[in-house]
């Protein structure tokens, strides 16, 4: 008897909670449906059309996709560049920002100010960042000037050399984005329970052991989060190469999103741009899913 | 997950339906019959003020019309025009530049004799060649308010210090090379090498005496004369070493910056920057000369900006009247006397020189007159902007010796010839 | 502290301050570039400080274009956008993080998937949508389309989950409904989370470039700062000096915000479970 009443009570309560939840979630749901799902659906449709900026739109099935893979000279290089950028950028950025967060421990004086300092490039307009890096890197620039003066050694024309250009895009991006992940790791380290640290120290762990065996595993969830977000953003990289190298020399630093931008806004082939966008989306989904699967191996969750 | 999936599909289906239903519906700029919207680029407050002065003239001449103007900076204007065209949102009157036209002809109405008449314009009033500026394959898509061509600008102080000969009207490519070589000294270079289409192509075109596009709009980048002249141009950096290699493919204005920062003694740039260079920031004495002459004399392109009529415009007659005012005598006189650019109307042109500092007036006048004597309308292929987008980042490789000019031109020809 | 430890600490300080110095170099260069005359921007050999410190560049920024309008618009859009994001994200985060309902987790996964859609892919359809709504060249178009991204909801959900569930139970016993629980208990406990989300959202609105560029027609009316920065590049070249000065001006508000909320920022991130466990 009591159980039924309880069940019914729980049921009505659950129903009430569902109704209320709907109320809470509906602004976000409606907004997301209108401003993300709908445009996304539209862009899927566009991918199947020959969709010039102006004039007749024509259904072409998978032609845009076929064109990308077989006859678009910049598409494969763009995929390659995005891959190279990601492979270089993600580990360097994550490792450096983690090192930085670990170095800024509580015994360092002025750590709050230092944290803000390392965060400033994140909030600086990219136009300004890029302009300065160009002035530093160009042959008549600061770096080569110093090298000539001190060592009499002529540095390469960094942004005009196919290999160096990508390296510099990566370095500049790392510099620009370092503060973001650093903040996440700092937060995680701040959160480490004192009791665990004390216990580890009593066990004789110190220095690197403490770091590798205790600290890093404890903050591995945040390392995971940062790697996922960094991976997604590096697959979507656009502004840095667009402004720093213009995608050049040739197409040596043109990533996929710049390819999409060019197709859509410069060459006015919106269908092809949308198709390329969907390939990028697929890559992001697959890699993110892979990361989620792989995390079980190394991310340490405490329950 | 399954439910979400179905929901997603439903949205996609609705979206595609909505698309087919609403695809044709557009606002076409200008709601009422008497309203005309003008889209134009404008960066600074000065630019906007000048446009407003012309707008005022149009309003005064047509008080019955409700004319409004919307502006965006030059760099963004064409990105926006793409979205506006894609969505049928183009303003009835839109600003256009000769270098950009080929990508946007689909949005513009080809203007007929009758249209010009409605606008109250007479072709004979414009400078010879001016009406070719906004032409594409024989159709006229707009009427220019200014005309320009490329010149060689020089840093007189630097040339003097290096003992190099000063460029002058009637000079040849031998003279050019001599000056460039002599001026390359003490860490300064003879020439700021060009990255923009106009800036880099001007010398090869003048030297070869041909444009890289044939009269019927076919791409002709592999024309032997043009290739040879272009190779010569690239060699200025890699072989003759009279120009510094470009640092990055995003440096669209490399050569001009090198010149205005006093790092290079010469640069090729448009007549539009004449006044700017004369009043340069580092304060050097600047001068100008027409492009040097090759074996067949010198050849320059006539360039410029103007206004066109959107194909979708609902009230074309009213818009044409506004177009007439914007390009009428009064408005053109204003452009000339404000010294902003060299007007396209013959009778307004002399006014331009009066605005120039008396010290330079004669040089500017004679250089302009000489330069505009040997000009041709710019020919472009349908995908000219793609060609430019492809070539520019590859020029960096050419200037840095990683690729050859011939290969780049050949590859562009292969890709974009159709 | 042992001697060895002390020596190590000194070395650590030295290393980190040198790193900070190198790290700062480009920013210092940027600052001094904003004080140079335009013609010296690319002078060779490059010099940190120009022939004069032209402070008037900062004033000239305001004379060049409608810069005050750009700043006002940026503030309005960023603040309004942040408020919308805070409202939408906290409510949805609450529903996803603390209420039980059917289909919750499936819908949440869908939410997260939208994080992966590159903005450049949907701007054109988004623009078409704005036209159907008649929003082109209006404030709603600048504020709303990117105010519903899943990031905020995700962040707030993580954050709310860190708050002990006993508090809800206690509130329920007191007869409080979800709305009261949300407003009186959950929100006040989430100040750090709200601070983090505010900074990140404000930053993304403040620096957003591509979308305002596309959806604004008349820059004199609705232009924002990043778009305004682009207006220093014209048909006849670029005013580098003014562009740099304008960039310096435009980074002030976000920097102040970061400094002001610094403490909450670190705490907030860790409590959201993004940082820690």
Provide the CATH architecture of the largest domain in chain B. 3-Layer(aba) Sandwich
| Spans of at least 5 consecutive residues with low confidence of chain B | 1-31
Shape of chain A: flat
Computed over alpha carbons, the radius of gyration of chain B is 23 Å
* CATH class descriptor of the largest domain in chain A: Mainly Alpha
Helix and strand sequence of chain B: HEHEHEHEEEEHHEHHHEHEEEHHHHEHH
Can you tell me about this structure?
The complex is a heterotrimer of chains A (303), B (418) and C (277). Chain A is mostly helical. Chain A has helices spanning 2-47, 63-70, 75-103, 111-123, 126-137, 142-151, 162-191, 194-202, 207-218, 220-235, 239-244, 256-266, 270-298, and strands at 49-50, 58-59. Chain A is flat. The relative contact order of chain A is 0.13. Mean pLDDT of chain A is 85; it is low at 1-5. Chain B has 2 domains: 35-147 and 303-370, 3-Layer(aba) Sandwich (D-Maltodextrin-Binding Protein, domain 2); 150-302 and 383-416, Periplasmic binding protein-like II (D-Maltodextrin-Binding Protein, domain 2, 3-Layer(aba) Sandwich). Chain B has helices spanning 2-22, 45-61, 74-86, 113-119, 156-162, 173-183, 197-208, 224-238, 254-260, 274-278, 316-326, 329-337, 349-354, 358-373, 384-399, 405-416; strands spanning 35-41, 66-72, 93-97, 135-136, 139-140, 143-144, 150-155, 189-192, 264-270, 286-289, 300-302, 305-309, 375-377. In chain B, α15 runs antiparallel to α16. Chain B starts with a helix and ends with a helix. Chain C is mainly α. Chain C has 15 helices and 2 strands. At the A-C interface, α1, α4, α5, α7 and α10 of A face α1, α3, α4, α5 and α9 of C.
Q: Which tags fit this structure?
A:
heterotrimer; A: 303 residues; mainly alpha; MetI-like fold; 2 domains; two-stranded antiparallel sheet; 1% strand; C: 277 residues
In short:
Chain A is an all-alpha fold and 303 residues long.
């Amino acid at each position: 008897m009591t159980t039924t009443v309880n069940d019914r009570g729980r049921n009505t309560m659950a129903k009430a909670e569902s109704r209320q939840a709907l109320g809470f979630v509906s602004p976000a749901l409606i907004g997301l449906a209108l401003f993300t799902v709908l445009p996304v659906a539209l862009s899927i449709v566009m991918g199947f059309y020959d969709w010039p900026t102006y004039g007749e739109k024509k259904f072409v099935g998978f032609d845009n996709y076929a064109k990308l893979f077989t006859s678009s000279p910049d598409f494969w290089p763009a995929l390659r560049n995005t891959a190279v950028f990601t492979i270089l950028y993600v580990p360097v950025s994550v490792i450096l920002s983690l090192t930085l967060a670990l170095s800024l421990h509580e015994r360092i004086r002025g750590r709050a100010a230092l944290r803000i300092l390392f965060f400033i490039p994140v909030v600086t307009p990219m136009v300004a960042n890029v302009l300065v890096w160009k002035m530093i890197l160009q042959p008549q620039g600061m770096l080569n000037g110093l090298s000539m003066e001190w060592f009499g050694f002529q540095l390469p024309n960094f942004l005009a050399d196919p290999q160096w250009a990508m390296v510099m895009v990566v370095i500049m991006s790392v510099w620009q984005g370092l503060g973001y992940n650093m903040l996440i790791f700092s937060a995680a380290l701040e959160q480490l329970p004192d009791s665990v640290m004390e216990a580890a120290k009593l066990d004789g762990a110190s220095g690197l052991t403490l770091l590798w065996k205790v600290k890093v595993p404890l903050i591995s969830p945040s390392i995971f989060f940062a790697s996922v977000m960094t991976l997604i953003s590096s697959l979507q990289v656009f502004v840095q190469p667009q402004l720093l190298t213009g995608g050049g020399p040739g197409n040596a630093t043109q990533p996929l999103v710049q390819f999409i931008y060019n197709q859509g806004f410069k060459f006015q082939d919106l269908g092809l741009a949308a198709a390329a966008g969907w390939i990028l989306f697929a890559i992001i989904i697959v890699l993110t899913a892979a990361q989620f699967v792989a995390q079980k191996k190394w991310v340490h969750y405490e329950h | 997950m399954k439910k979400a999936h179905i929901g997603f599909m439903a949205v996609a289906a609705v979206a595609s339906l909505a698309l087919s239903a609403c695809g044709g519906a557009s606002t076409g700029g200008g709601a009422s019959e008497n309203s005309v919207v003008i889209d134009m680029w404008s960066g600074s407050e000065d630019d906007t003020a000048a446009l407003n002065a012309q707008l005022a003239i149009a309003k005064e001449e047509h008080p019955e019309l409700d004319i409004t103007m919307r502006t965006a900076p030059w760099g963004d204007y064409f990105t926006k025009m793409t979205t506006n065209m894609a969505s049928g949102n183009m303003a009835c009157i839109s600003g256009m530049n000769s270098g950009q036209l080929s990508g946007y002809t689909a949005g513009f109405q080809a203007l007929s004799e009758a249209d010009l008449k409605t606008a109250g314009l007479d072709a004979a009033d414009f400078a010879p060649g001016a009406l070719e500026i906004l032409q594409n394959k024989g159709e006229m898509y707009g009427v220019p308010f200014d005309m320009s061509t490329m010149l060689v600008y020089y840093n007189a102080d630097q040339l003097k210090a290096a003992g190099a000969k000063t460029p002058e009207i009637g000079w040849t490519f031998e003279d050019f090379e001599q000056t460039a070589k002599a001026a390359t000294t003490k860490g300064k270079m003879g020439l700021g090498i060009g990255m923009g289409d106009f800036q880099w192509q001007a010398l090869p075109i003048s030297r070869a005496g041909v444009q890289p596009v044939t009269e019927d709009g076919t791409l002709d980048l592999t024309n032997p004369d043009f290739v040879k002249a272009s190779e010569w141009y690239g060699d200025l950096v890699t072989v003759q070493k009279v120009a510094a290699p470009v640092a990055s493919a995003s440096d669209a204005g490399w050569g001009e910056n090198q010149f205005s920062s006093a790092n290079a003694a010469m640069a090729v740039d448009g007549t539009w920057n004449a006044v700017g260079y004369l009043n340069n920031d580092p304060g050097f004495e600047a001068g100008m000369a027409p492009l040097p002459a090759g074996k067949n004399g010198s050849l320059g392109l006539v360039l410029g900006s103007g206004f066109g009529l959107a194909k979708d415009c609902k009230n074309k007659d009213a818009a044409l009247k506004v177009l007439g005012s914007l390009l009428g005598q009064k408005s053109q006189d204003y452009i000339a006397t404000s010294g902003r650019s060299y007007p396209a109307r013959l009778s307004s042109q002399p006014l331009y020189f009066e605005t120039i500092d008396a010290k330079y007036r004669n040089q500017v006048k004679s250089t302009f007159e000489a330069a505009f004597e040997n000009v041709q309308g710019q020919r472009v292929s349908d995908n000219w902007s793609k060609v430019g987008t492809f070539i520019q980042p590859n020029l960096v490789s050419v200037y840095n010796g990683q690729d050859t000019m011939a290969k780049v031109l050949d590859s562009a020809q292969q890709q974009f010839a159709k | 502290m042992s001697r060895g430890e002390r020596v190590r600490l000194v070395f650590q300080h030295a290393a980190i301050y040198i790193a900070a110095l190198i790290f700062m170099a480009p920013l210092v260069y940027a600052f001094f570039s904003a004080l140079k005359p335009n013609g010296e921007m690319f002078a060779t050999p490059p010099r940190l400080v120009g022939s004069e410190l032209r402070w008037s560049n900062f004033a000239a920024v305001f004379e060049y274009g409608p810069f005050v309008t750009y700043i006002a618009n940026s503030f309005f859009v960023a603040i309004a956008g942040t408020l919308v994001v805070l409202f939408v994200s906290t409510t949805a985060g609450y529903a996803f993080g603390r209420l039980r309902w059917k289909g919750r987790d499936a819908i949440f996964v869908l939410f997260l998937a939208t994080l992966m859609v590159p903005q450049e892919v949907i701007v054109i359809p988004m623009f078409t949508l704005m036209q159907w709504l008649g929003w082109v060249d209006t404030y709603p178009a600048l504020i709303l389309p990117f105010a519903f991204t899943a990031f905020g909801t995700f962040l707030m959900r993580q954050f709310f989950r860190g708050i002990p569930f006993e508090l809800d139970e206690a509130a329920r016993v007191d007869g409080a409904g979800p709305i009261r629980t949300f407003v009186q208990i959950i929100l006040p406990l989430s100040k750090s989370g709200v601070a983090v989300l505010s900074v990140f959202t404000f930053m993304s609105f403040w620096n957003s470039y591509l979308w305002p560029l596309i959806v604004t027609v008349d820059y004199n009316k609705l232009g924002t700062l990043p778009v305004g920065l682009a207006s220093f590049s014209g048909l006849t070249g670029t005013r580098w000096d003014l562009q740099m000065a304008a960039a310096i001006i435009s980074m002030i508000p976000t920097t102040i915000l970061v400094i002001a909320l610094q403490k909450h920022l670190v705490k907030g991130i860790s409590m959201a479970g993004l940082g820690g466990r």
